[in-house]
Design goal:
Elements: E1 7-8, E2 17-24, E3 29-34
Antiparallel strand pairs: 1-2, 2-3
């Protein structure tokens, strides 16, 4: 189960993502994450 502070890894992202906020809505879950690297 995902929760705030969880670290997730996937082939969809170039690096692990830390979950900062999860907003549960009626039929979906809006997740806001943070990475350590930047392409700037």
């Amino acid at each position: 189960m995902l929760k705030d502070g969880s670290i997730i890894k996937s082939s969809n992202w170039p690096e692990p993502v830390e979950i900062k906020l999860i907003e549960e809505k009626e039929n979906y879950c809006h997740t806001i994450g943070l990475t350590n690297k930047s392409d700037n």
